[in-house]
Design goal:
666 residues, alpha+beta, 4 domains, three-stranded antiparallel beta sheet, 7% strand
Length: 666
């Protein structure tokens, strides 16, 4: 029993000592770590830090970065050595924890067997129960210490990984400063292939060390200008020089941004290193707390051994174990103090980096301002309102634009003067019954002038835009989209134009015709592709969309034929009356003032019907389409005069009204 207790106690002390690096088996002792940390702090303060307001040159930056790399590599070697010690520490703690658990379970099983046996010695049962409780307490101490060891090991592993990345970033920054590594600027997704480099110009090569991810930076200037087009022969020397300066300034901005991104990444790595060191410091504090608890437990057991008059060698071993744990606690405290100093040095370095970051940010802002000024200069030199550009534009493009405008004006004048003649020629060549009048020609001329004017203006505008340097493909594309939108949104309008085209193509009516459209009768004053304008006898104007025209009655199409009905008395000689009417119509056709308005001989239809007021004699006369009503009125006038001379009575309906007496009959 005593031998097992001594074995367990010394195993616990031995494992703790190995874990803390006290025994010779540990490759890295706490004293070694403390010395290295102190030296690093001194070197960092002496070599890296400097006056915050001092503007460091590239040479000073190279020296400082090299010193930081050396310090980080030294710390990396110590961390790797510490990782080995902490790994062995955790493995030994896990093994000891397993042995204690195995012994506890065996004692516990034995205790359960004794408690189940009524004949068991009560003192033996009480002693065994105390031993089980003591082993359970040892297992709890092991469990706490094992968790701390595992957490510390994970932290050291993460710190090693982060420190390796930090060293790589610092070496990359050092390479860019010394010129061993060319800064690779990120290319735009739609960037064109690079032009052949000039002799002596540095070429970007892939970096052997991955660049840190770019960070988002506030930009005091305007948004970057779009990708510039290749220089053309029309550009002036000042514009080419300004674009070259702008390209250099923008490259300087990108290089400064990459440098700032690299700087921020190094600062983030330093902050992460500080977090890891603070985590290890917190872990050391917990280990000290746990070891002090172990020392308190073991000191209590030592007092119990002394009161129980335990063997002297057991008491001495316990005393040596307590002294060793006290020494380990002191070593851990010294290690914690050294780590605290190291954290202070890292914080000082971080403060210097904060100040340096302000300077680097100011440098980026200054370069952005320079690039913005260069961009504004380029925009001004390329602006259409620049005096030189106006002069150059007027010299290069002005004559062609003026020529297009003059040509369009001449075409408009030609259409205005010749549209009617062309239309009359086309109507005359077409032939037909309507070729004798000018209404058809006037209608076609009016529509032709409207369409031609629109087409000439549209094409002239497009040519002027093209000569002015505007991409007409974009304009035509937008016009096509707009046309589709109008076609869907204004279907009635398209229907009007289509119906108007058919009306003009089929020559349904023309200017001056007397038509009836949708119940409205009037003279056609205007007809085009969209609307027809009628004016009735009262002078009212009716605008009828062509798409709404369902039925058209043209009373003056090709020729006219007024039908005249003359009522005469029953006792008149109808043959004499008919001969008189035919002679009146022939005399009208031979009259010089009316010759040409009456077409052909009159057509006598004869007696049409008998009515209560006389005999109806009907006859017709064929006239020109626009003279129908005039001929009708003139015929009626002459018939009235001749009938009066010949004594022929024209009967009219007569009505006899019978009025009764107002007085009542008696």
């Amino acid at each position: 029993m005593m031998l097992a207790e001594m074995k367990t106690s010394f195993r616990w002390i031995w494992v703790v000592m190995i874990a803390l690096g006290v025994v010779p088996a540990a490759p890295l002792t706490l004293a070694h770590a403390q010395t290295g940390t102190a030296n690093e702090s001194e070197t960092t303060d002496a070599g890296v830090s400097g006056p915050p307001t001092e503007a460091a040159s590239d040479a000073k930056r190279v020296v400082r970065i090299r010193q930081v790399i050396d310090l980080d590599k030294q710390h990396l070697r110590r961390l790797r050595s510490e990782l080995g010690s902490r790994t062995r520490w955790f493995e030994d703690l896990a093994a000891g924890m397993g042995e204690v658990a195995e012994e506890r379970n065996a004692k516990k099983a034995k205790l359960e067997a004794l408690e189940a046996n009524p004949e068991s010695d009560p003192e033996e049962v009480a002693a065994l129960r105390a031993k089980v409780e003591e082993l359970q307490e040892d297992w709890s101490l092991y469990d706490t210490q094992t968790d701390l060891a595992l957490g510390a090991e994970k932290t050291v592993r993460k710190q090693i990984e982060a420190l390796e990345k930090k060293i790589a970033a610092e070496e990359h920054a050092l390479g860019t400063l010394t010129g061993e590594i060319e800064i690779s600027l990120p290319e735009a997704p739609d960037a064109e292939p690079a032009e052949p480099t000039e002799p002596g110009k540095p070429v970007s090569v892939p970096s052997p060390v991955p660049l840190p991810s770019p960070v988002s930076l506030p930009s005091p200037g305007p948004a970057p200008a779009p990708k510039q087009a290749k220089a053309s022969s029309a550009m002036t020397a000042a514009q080419l020089q300004a674009q070259d300066i702008l390209a250099r300034k923008e490259r300087d901005v990108e290089i400064a941004k990459v440098a700032l991104s690299d700087f921020v990444e190094r600062k983030r790595a330093l902050q992460q290193q500080i977090e890891f060191e603070e985590g290890l410091a917190d872990n050391d504090a917990k280990e000290i707390e746990n070891l002090e608890h172990v020392l308190e437990v073991l000191s209590g057991r030592l007092e119990e051994y002394r009161e129980a008059n335990a063997p002297a060698d057991k008491i001495q071993r316990r005393e040596r174990g307590n002294r060793e744990i006290t020494r380990i606690i002191g070593e851990v405290k010294k290690s914690g103090e050294a780590r605290t100093e190291y954290i202070k040095s890292l914080l000082e370095r971080l403060a210097h980096l904060d100040e340096a970051e302000l300077r680097v940010t100011e440098e980026v802002d200054a370069k952005q301002v320079e690039a913005a000024n260069a961009r504004r200069q380029v925009i001004w030199l390329e602006s259409p309102v620049h005096p030189k550009n106006i002069q150059h534009w007027a010299k290069e493009r002005g004559p062609r634009i003026l020529l297009v405008i003059v040509a369009a004006a001449l075409l408009l004048l030609f259409v205005r003067l010749s549209a009617q003649r062309i239309a009359r020629t086309l109507v005359r060549r077409r032939g037909g019954s309507r070729t004798t009048g000018t209404g058809r020609a006037d209608t076609l001329a009016f529509s032709f002038r409207s369409v031609s004017r629109i087409l000439i203006v549209v094409f002239a505008v497009l040519l002027v835009l093209q000569e002015a340097g505007v991409d007409i493909k974009t304009v035509l594309g937008g016009a096509a989209i707009l046309g589709v939108a109008i076609a869907f949104g204004a279907q009635d309008l398209m229907k009007d134009y289509f119906s108007g085209f058919l009306i003009l193509a089929e020559d349904q009516y023309q200017l001056g015709d007397l038509v009836t459209i949708n119940g409205v009768t009037g003279t056609v004053e205007s007809v085009n592709m969209r609307v027809t304008v009628l004016r009735d006898l009262e002078g009212r104007v009716h605008f009828i969309p062509n798409g709404n025209i369902d039925h058209v009655t043209n009373r003056t199409y090709a020729w006219g034929r007024p039908v005249i009905e003359i009522p005469v008395a029953f006792d008149e000689d109808v043959d004499r009356v008919m001969e008189t009417l035919v002679q009146i119509a022939k005399d009208l056709g031979e009259d010089p003032d009316w010759k040409g308005k009456v077409i052909g001989d009159p057509e006598m239809l004869g007696v049409d019907k008998f009515t209560e007021y006389g005999v109806i004699i009907k006859f017709m006369v064929k006239t020109r389409p626009d003279q129908l009503f005039a001929v009708r009125r003139e015929l009626l006038r002459r018939i009235s005069q001749r009938f009066n001379e010949l004594g022929i009575r024209i009967t009219v309906p007569q009505r006899i009204l019978l009025r009764g007496s107002d007085e009542p009959q008696s």
